[in-house]
């Protein structure tokens, strides 16, 4: 019997050390009863010297409050973490990751598993957090949400997402004073981190917060605790108003789809006045309905992408002086006679536009390859800035062009400005490889967004397409007309060709020709037509010429 117990103990310790650098057992007061492992590296002391000391003695001040909340809220049989904290090793901060477990057989005792976080690896994988509160940034929260939801589904844990709204900084400063307001916010953040799953609490904006938590910790408990914390710092000893709304996380929904739906919905509603004022019931119903609708739309898109249920039309871009066709812009359609604009905006916002862009690019490459006799049949393809920001998309696009595109001079890529590209230098370096193959690059809808001039400054492009809003206002000789002239002169001075879109009258075409525009696009010349029809017409013309 003794040998069996020893064998089980040794096996348990072996498994533990396979996943941990340091094992710690705490008593009810948080003092260390047992310690085994790399205590010198993580705590700055050998094992024998850390025994009987509170664990908080080895943790930076900013994390002590969070640990206290963590220990106070864990129940027998619960496991929490992993959570990133910083220990102190001889006065130096050491980033570590801890998980805690309250053993059913040892009343009051808490087991802590601690791992060193390699600062080099951490720079690649660690989510972005606020330096002061330790809360995730909004973008990091949405990125982490998928893994958190997936983990909960794998373990059968029922979870929810709660959004918390507090008074803004000015109101807190007025009520509590700057110092107390700061301490209140930090303590409230520590509490949210402690009760979240996997340290998933985040700052969504200046006074709105979100966390993913187990269903056993409902929003009423969370708001009650934050109100109690606020009493400690409020000069009158009263609590501040806290709003809360809970979003249901459906365990039957794909974690990736759910995290996209959460990001889309929260970005829409986080500043909603109902949420700000704490009127949670109707708001919760509205938000949960939006989540359901968003998931359905994502599923619709994924079905479209999987089965390639996309139809295509193309519109001529002509030499504005001669009316000869220069190239065609390839446009996708999901429903007959319905603009895809709103659906494409949705796809961009939920982070699946790159999948659509790749399908359209593949189709364009196929049509170019299948028409070797039509040397003047060139296609322009719209690529979202959101797609270009993804390294995986850029790799696939470059691979497609290098390995499959036979006539690269007949492909033109139009970069849309609906989503701003952060690293324009890296983007330009990437497109140098593509332009070197003969593919031309165009800035689409120039002048429509705030980043237009920055794109022009940082990207080596061949063509600039001026946004149609300026063309519609041309010849009115107002502000837009002066901006239009300035844009044309600027592009000409940089040796870029210019396309004007949405040209509808001969007078517009004549005026734009006088201003120096090279190419025109619009109903004056050609309405979008199916690509197959255009290719068939080219075949007929070729036969007549033969």
Describe this structure in words.
- There is one protein chain.
- The chain has 546 residues and is of the alpha/beta class.
- It has 22 helices and 18 strands.
- It has helices at 2-19, 39-43, 47-50, 61-73, 119-125, 138-155, 169-176, 178-195, 219-233, 255-269, 273-276, 280-307, 341-349, 353-370, 385-388, 391-403, 424-436, 452-458, 468-472, 479-493, 506-515, 531-545, and strands spanning 22-26, 32-37, 79-89, 92-102, 110-116, 159-165, 202-203, 208-214, 243-248, 311-319, 325-333, 379-384, 411-416, 440-446, 463-466, 497-500, 519-520, 529-530.
- Strands 10-11-12-13-14-15-16-17 form an 8-stranded mixed barrel, surrounded by 4 helices. A 5-stranded antiparallel beta sheet has the order 2-1-5-4-3, sandwiched between helices.
- The radius of gyration is 30 Å and the shape is elongated.
- Mean pLDDT is 86; it is low at 9-18 and 120-124.
Give the end-to-end Cα distance, rounded to a whole number of Å.
96 Å
How much of the polypeptide forms β-strand, as a percent range?
A: 15-25%
Query: What is the helix content?
Result: 40-55%
Strand order of the largest sheet: 10-11-12-13-14-15-16-17
Structural class based on helices, strands and sheet pairing: alpha/beta
Number of helical segments with 4 or more residues:
22
Major beta sheet, specifics? 8 strands, mixed, barrel
What is the arithmetic mean of pLDDT? 86
Flag low-confidence runs.
9-18, 120-124
The coarse overall form would be elongated
Rg over alpha carbons: 30 Å
How many strands in all?
18
